[in-house]
Amino acid sequence: TSHHDFINKLPKAELHLHIEGSLEPELMFALAQRNKVTLPYASVEEIRTAYNFTDLQSFLDLYYAGAAVLLTEQDFYDLTMAYVQRALADSVRHVELFFDPQTHTARGVSTETVFAGIARALRQARQEHGFSSSMILCFLRHLSEEDAVETLKLALPLREQYADLWNGVGLDSAEVDNPPEKFSKVFAQARELGFHLVAHAGEEGPPAYIHSALDVLQVERIDHGVRAEEDPALMQKLAKTQMPLTVCPLSNLKLCVVDDLSEHNLARMLRAGLCVTINSDDPAYFGGYMNANFIASADALDLSRVELVQLAKNGFCASFAAPEQKQLWL
Ligand code: ES4
Ligand code: ZN
């Protein structure tokens, strides 16, 4: 319809995208063969059939298993370039891409290899398509804070070489029982180093985790944050401070955070004046990239064109891009 066409062409910024979660079954299969890695699947169809999640952990198990095919700089380049092509097709003009070094260093892949492959693709996309991007290094919260400190230490020597891209740190993986405050020291260190800070909070975890991400970690955006609605005082604070929430509708549906998109609170939060953005999270696993997330939300929640434009604008506004760049978008 014309509403869908309007969405498809609307310029967008994506602020919540795990590059490992953009690994499509076809590329996973091809890389497994190229690298002689054994997958627990016989075919691409079998991979897709396995994507029936009940919660975050049931997804993370397959996400980490799938990432095992990523070994070389070329693999990370191919992965990132495939994402860039999908993003360009969806009128995405800017991405702040999450990556998980610990998922790879644990398998003997160096931090340098991960940075180099992702960065080569993003720099080429900038050159050839004017595609704007940055990289946010995420710590895995099911691991220890010492492990996160070591991860940051291993990445810091690369900071200058990737100064045009790496500008933030984040926190992802299994949320429940791994509260933000577990990572207070490493976030304080990253803050002193001048990195932008974000954290997943209030996806499966309670509103208290959103409070501690804000008050203890001092993050500048909340990834997901949908459980904020259970805490009216927190909702007031998020509206008043215009703290951005990077909401991922199809992710929430696939991981059973909501039973049906018509029950999703993104429209209620937007209409309550919060700075809500729409993002794809792990598009290869959750059934769609940016346009699919916008269209599914618009259809389920009756989003108006004014609201769709607001959601897209919020993405640019909440980005860590330079003010001069934002001016050009907004
Ligand atoms: C993630 Cl949806 C989600 N939540 C937490 N951690 C993640 N890592 C990749 N996708
Ligand atoms: Zn996420």
TrEMBL record:
Q: Which reaction does it catalyse?
A: adenine + H2O + H(+) = hypoxanthine + NH4(+)
Transmembrane region(s): none
UniProt record, GO biological process = adenine catabolic process; hypoxanthine salvage; nucleotide metabolic process
Where along the sequence does the record put site: Important for catalytic activity?
Answer: H224
The cofactor note reads: Binds 1 zinc ion per subunit.
Active-site residue numbers: E203 (proton donor)
Q: Which UniProt keywords apply?
A: Hydrolase, Metal-binding, Nucleotide metabolism, Zinc
Which enzyme class, named as a word? hydrolase
Asked if the Swiss-Prot or TrEMBL record annotates the protein with the keyword Phosphoprotein, the reply is: no
For this protein, the Enzyme Commission number is 3.5.4.2
Q: Which residues bind Zn(2+)?
A: H16, H18, H200, D281
Cofactor(s) needed by this chain: Zn(2+)
The residues covered by the Adenosine deaminase domain are 11-330
Family, similarity comment: Belongs to the metallo-dependent hydrolases superfamily. Adenosine and AMP deaminases family. Adenine deaminase type 2 subfamily.
Q: Give the protein's function.
A: Catalyzes the hydrolytic deamination of adenine to hypoxanthine. Plays an important role in the purine salvage pathway and in nitrogen catabolism.
PANTHER family documented for this protein? ADENINE DEAMINASE
The name on file for this protein is Adenine deaminase
Its source organism is: Undibacterium terreum
